[in-house]
Amino acid sequence: MTATPVTVTVTGAAGQIGYALLFRIASGQMLGPDTPVRLRLLEIPAGVRAAEGTAMELDDCAFPLLASIDVTDDVTAAFDGTNVGLLVGARPRTKGMERGDLLAANGGIFGPQGAAINAGAADDVRVLVVGNPANTNALIAAKHAPDVPASRFTAMTRLDHNRALSQLATRGGVPVGQVRNVTIWGNHSATQFPDIAHADVAGRPGAELAADAAWYLDEFVPTVAKRGAAIIEARGASSAASAANAAIEHVHDWVLGTPEGEWTSAAIMSDGSHYGVPEGIVSSFPVTSSGGEWEVVEGLEVSDLARERIDASVAELLEERDAVAGLGLV
Ligand SMILES: NC(=O)c1ccc[n+]([C@@H]2O[C@H](COP(=O)([O-])OP(=O)(O)OC[C@H]3O[C@@H](n4cnc5c(N)ncnc54)[C@H](O)[C@@H]3O)[C@@H](O)[C@H]2O)c1
Ligand SMILES: O=C(O)C[C@H](O)C(=O)O
Questions:
Q1: Which residues form a coiled coil (predicted)?
Q2: Can you list the domains of the chain with their CATH numbers?
Q3: 5-19 mean pLDDT
Q4: Does 93 belong to an annotated binding site?
Q5: SS (H, E, C) 125-152
């Protein structure tokens, strides 16, 4: 193995997503079987010991691609030379916490992390924000990194995308591997719009299934959009392995490209030129990737129904942006 190692920083490394994510990165599932990785695990001081334990286990796997592991609570050290940043650690909403408090607490995390990325990350740095509220946390990080192209900051809607593929496969009675081209629009929240109008369900147009409006709007859309809450209700903890899987797939496709004829969903910085989504929010679109750049899939017809749903989710993102702007975070 002669390739130069890629430096991957994972924040919230001692958390449940971190535990499901790190072993897959180190085994090559994220960046491919020929790319060695240097792992940097960032935690708050109270999480450092547990992250060190995870690092011991990573050592014990003897992964040939794992070049080194560093554990730190120093945000500057964590992002020094980083090529890929997975921002997972976030402040969860706790009882009695107002929305403004949640945004402010996360601003205190993602602002400094964005600044550290700006100061020290590699020129090709690519960032995926997983920690909620993911879209607005990505916006905060991007705004604190003025020297890094805004297109390098993304938020995760791949889990919602995968949830939509799975629900659609069940409805169509086909293997999930034969379903493609669903789209998640908007925010990673209950306002997101999982759109199947252009999907291919083992050769059957998704629009045919969407024509059953009672199923589509009253079952499919809420099942996908509220799946995170359903997992919390069932498991007593939020999704972890599926979230880690989606993060792996997001970065894999970003760096190595999406398959021919297929798109995925990712929340990217809107430049105002696609599907009527205003500039300056991190919103989910149908995207392909080649050469390490996301590109929005153009020319999809947007029905009146889709327009209304996209606008509603975008309105929520604009509200979140205004709230963090009011707090001086962007
Ligand atoms: N976008 C998505 O699809 C999606 C899906 C699932 C979960 N999430 C979100 O991902 C986040 C992490 O989930 P989890 O289950 O791993 O949570 P968790 O509570 O198990 O772990 C979070 C970890 O982050 C650490 N942390 C907190 N602040 C930090 C900071 N400033 N720097 C470094 N580390 C810090 C904590 O110590 C903790 O170990 C949550 O915000 C969750 O809501 C997003
Ligand atoms: O952590 C959450 O609130 C839910 C999570 O974002 C998910 O979609 O599973």
A1: none
A2: 6-155 (3.40.50.720), 158-320 (3.90.110.10)
A3: 98
A4: yes
A5: CEEEECCCCHHHHHHHHHHCCCCCCHHH
